[in-house]
Write a structure and sequence with these properties.
The protein is of the alpha+beta class. It folds into 4 domains: 8-50, no CATH class; 64-110 and 233-386, 3-hydroxy-3-methylglutaryl-coenzyme A Reductase, Chain A, domain 2, CATH 3.90.770.10; 114-227, Alpha-Beta Plaits, CATH 3.30.70; 391-437, no CATH class. Helices cover 49% and strands 18% of the residues. The protein is built from 15 helices and 10 strands. The strands form 3 sheets. It has a 4-stranded antiparallel sheet. Strand 5 (157-165) and strand 6 (173-181) form a beta hairpin. Helix 5 (126-143) crosses helix 7 (188-208) and helix 13 (389-404) crosses helix 15 (425-437). Bound molecules: (R)-mevalonate (MEV). (R)-mevalonate binds next to helix 9 and helix 12. GO terms for molecular function: hydroxymethylglutaryl-CoA reductase (NADH) activity; hydroxymethylglutaryl-CoA reductase (NADPH) activity.
Length: 438
């Protein structure tokens, strides 16, 4: 039976680990050893990581890799990726190489509008609320001048504020729906600060508005927060080539192109497949988003909402064959930043951004979309030809052998044994045991 703990956040890191080890581990010394094994010797660097979040007791490493040879809009990029799934980086690199020989990726940002909302309740006359909003709107914008002036100097700021009547969805529910241009910042702090000030000014002004009845003056602000659903912050990436150029697989180019287009059509038509199809796309997207210090949960939530925008969850990619040309493209919402937040704090994120030549937010949007498209291409290419297990299992084999503590020589020998065989965990263990018992 575990006990609750009082004042945990006030304990030192050592004390937290001690408490945890005693409360949850039979072999508490080993638990302490493992947790401390991941501490960084550089105390300054460790302190930086400790302070990212509360109650840090250790570091959780994920591999930081790069996928080279991405030809995007005529320039070569090496894309940094942070991910634990074994086949993702290899697949990205393979797709990059494939398209490098066929003109590369073309990517374009369509729009960069961010959204934030003040959600409030009002139970009076609708037209009086609209008149009040029209009267107060310039004051709302004026009230946040201190927050917006720097962003405005650089060409960004508030795009617009609308009053939205949501009473059909929920009784008495309205919004101030604000749109922003946050340039190279993801903009969460900027947007939330503006919204909280809008809410204060809006509520206070309503109380003084003589046209309102006394109950109308009592607007109830429920919350003020940015939206991670950004359907007007969109990037498009695509590849295309003559069908004849799809000539590297065991299918004929025409068979390949047709099967590929059908595979995408299936993901468009059927949500079970769409979820897995899009998960493969997110393998690429999340890995770059994470490596570049962006918020992958925000990106995930926004992208999946977009995939279901017509009421059914569908593929994020599309493919076509027209006049002998195979085209494959993706269009996704992405709210990313290349300044502020983790981008200026995390040393590896800074390196990732330098590898990408310090991109603007728009350039990063393009590269992230390209990584998603490349990942989907690689997955579908395997699925419609050799199947996914061949590549996956090779990596899986090495993971099992690493777990068993195999040497490089032993790995080579066992990999040879499994060259044309299905990788089954128990059989790998048996092969290893046989090798080591000799
Ligand atoms: C595995 O992480 C991703 C795939 O399942 C994606 C797909 O099925 O398209 C291979």
């Amino acid at each position: 039976m575990k006990r609750p703990v009082e004042g945990f956040s006030k304990l030192t890191k050592e004390q937290k680990i001690d408490w945890l080890a005693k409360a949850y581990f039979y072999d508490d010394e080993n638990a302490v050893y493992v947790l401390k094994q991941y501490w960084n010797e550089d105390t300054q660097l460790q302190k930086l990581h400790d302070e990212f979040i509360e109650n840090t007791i250790s570091n959780f490493y994920l591999p930081f890799a790069v996928a080279p040879n991405f030809l995007v809009n005529g320039e070569y990029y090496t894309i940094p990726m942070t991910i634990e799934e074994s086949s993702v980086v290899a697949a990205a690199s393979k797709a990059a190489k494939f398209w490098q020989k066929r003109g590369g990726f073309i990517a374009k940002v369509i729009d960069t509008e961010k959204i934030g909302q003040v959600h409030f309740m009002y139970s009076g006359d609708k037209s009086r609320l609209q008149t009040f909003f029209t009267y107060i709107k310039p004051q709302l914008i004026h009230a946040v001048k201190d927050i917006t002036k720097n962003m405005e100097k650089r060409g960004g700021g508030i795009i617009d504020i609308e009053l939205r009547d949501k009473t059909e969805a929920l009784t008495n529910y309205y919004q101030l729906h604000a749109t922003f241009n946050t340039l190279d910042a993801m903009g969460a702090n900027f947007i939330n600060s503006c919204l909280e000030q809008f809410a204060k000014t809006f509520k206070a002004a309503a109380q003084d508005y003589s046209e309102f009845t006394s109950s109308e003056k009592d607007i109830q602000i429920v919350m003020s927060i940015l939206s991670n659903y950004v359907p007007n912050c969109i990037v498009h990436a695509e590849v295309s080539c003559p069908v004849e150029a799809l000539n590297e697989d065991r299918l004929t180019p025409h068979e390949f192109a047709e099967k590929f287009v059908r595979a995408v059509a299936i993901a468009n038509a059927e949500p079970h497949r769409a979820v897995t199809h899009n998960k493969g796309i997110m393998n690429g997207i999340d890995a770059v988003v994470l490596a570049t210090g962006n918020d992958f949960r925000a990106v995930e939530a926004g992208i999946h909402a977009y995939a279901a925008r017509d009421g059914q969850y569908r593929s994020l990619t599309q493919a076509s064959i027209e006049n002998g040309i195979f085209r494959f493209w993706i269009e996704i919402p992405l709210a990313l930043g290349t300044v502020g937040g983790l981008t200026s704090l995390h040393p590896l994120v800074k390196i990732a951004l330098e590898i990408l030549d310090k991109p603007s937010a728009k350039e990063l949007m393009q590269l992230v979309a390209v990584a998603g498209l490349a990942q989907n291409f690689a997955a579908l290419r395997s699925l419609i030809t050799s199947g996914i297990q061949k590549g996956h299992m090779k990596m899986h084999l090495f993971n099992i052998l690493n777990q068993l503590g195999a040497t490089e020589e032993q790995k080579k020998l066992i990999a040879h044994q499994f060259k044309d065989k299905t990788v089954i965990h128990s059989e790998v263990v048996a092969a290893y045991q046989q090798l080591t018992s000799n």
